[in-house]
């Protein structure tokens, strides 16, 4: 047979089409429209809508904006609220909720006699800028103290944003960071936890965590948050009744508010956050004893340790 009569069985070559094929085979160097690369599947779609596991993620720019906005809002909110707390007379707070570290002794003025003050001593003048909870005068708060508290609140809000990212639960835990810093600052200064501050923390948690549940987390975490709040409140109430000199009702109420946020994360964070306050206050007490800044009779404010334990738990177990 003549060679020219041999039929060429090879298929004709096909040009590369605009659909990304060559010789009928997908071009490995081209990704079809709408398809995700391996990197995109791991880190998100690139449009901030989600990742390969269905969790909401953000692009780098949105992530930066989220962290920065959380820091700025936290600082501004802390500044405004601290000014309002400082300007409010102490008599407006319920004494039952104004004690965070057990009973604080009240100095009663000695009754004068017809010969003058008892013992012939004149009453000691009040320190400049100081205020007494008995007469309801607000205590002066320096600009430096406000700035320090605002910076701490802003930094913690940013850390929460770094941990959680642009999720529905971020507003709730950023609010916890700001409110927790304010309550801790008041407790350190006054040895009291204002009822209004604790109540506002709890109400904000209820509202913002409910929004997070509506946003896609489901209602199971919200139900667990309510159960966690009740459990931590009951546990602290029992401890306060057994040892009233160690815990005040302000601590009990704060425990209920913190249990809401911790319970939303899970049972393990609830237990760790609830017990962490006792560990931190014990460490602080040992440090002060070693530095001779306190003795065994010194009563430490427990609110800051509770807040610190809760925020550490959020940063470790946040989701």
Characterise the protein shown here.
Pfam families: Peptidase_A24. Keywords: Membrane, Transmembrane, Transmembrane helix. It is built from 9 helices and 2 strands, in the order E-E-H-H-H-H-H-H-H-H-H. Helix 5 (195-217) packs parallel to helix 7 (249-265). Mean pLDDT is 73; it is low at 14-54, 90-97 and 99-138. The longest helix has 28 residues, at 60-87. The chain has a domain at 60-98 and 138-317. It has a two-stranded antiparallel ribbon with strand order 1-2. The protein is mainly α and 319 residues long. 56% of the residues lie in helices and 1% in strands. Strand 1 (21-22) and strand 2 (25-26) form a beta hairpin. The radius of gyration is 30 Å and the shape is globular. It has helices spanning 38-43, 60-87, 143-164, 170-190, 195-217, 220-242, 249-265, 267-290, 303-317, and strands spanning 21-22, 25-26.
Question: Would you spell out the secondary-structure blueprint of this structure?
Answer:
Layout: E1 21-22, E2 25-26, H1 38-43, H2 60-87, H3 143-164, H4 170-190, H5 195-217, H6 220-242, H7 249-265, H8 267-290, H9 303-317
Antiparallel strand pairs: 1-2
Helix pairs in contact: 2-3, 2-4, 3-4, 3-9, 4-5, 4-9, 5-7, 6-7, 7-8, 7-9, 8-9
Biased composition (Low complexity): 120-133
Family: Belongs to the peptidase A24 family.
Keywords: Membrane, Transmembrane, Transmembrane helix
